[in-house]
Write a structure and sequence with these properties.
The protein is mostly helical. The protein is 60% helix and 0% strand. The longest helix has 19 residues.
């Protein structure tokens, strides 16, 4: 019984220690500078046609409020 208890305790300790061994990789970026993948919608959002479509979509949802 005691060996079973010690084996379970040792297993729990090993599991707890492996969880503590993770390292997180945090990247710090310059504020205001986008360094991610190129956004395909960025160019589209600059057109007047897209702007008008977004205004129409907004009015469809927001008129009841």
């Amino acid at each position: 019984m005691r060996t079973m208890y010690l084996a379970a305790l040792g297993g729990a300790l090993a599991l707890a220690l492996t969880a503590c061994g993770q390292e997180t990789a945090v990247k710090l970026h310059e504020p205001g500078k986008y360094v991610g993948e190129k956004d395909p919608l960025l160019e589209k959002s600059r057109s007047a046609q897209h702007d008008e479509a977004m205004k129409q979509r907004f009015l469809l949802v927001q008129t009841d409020r």
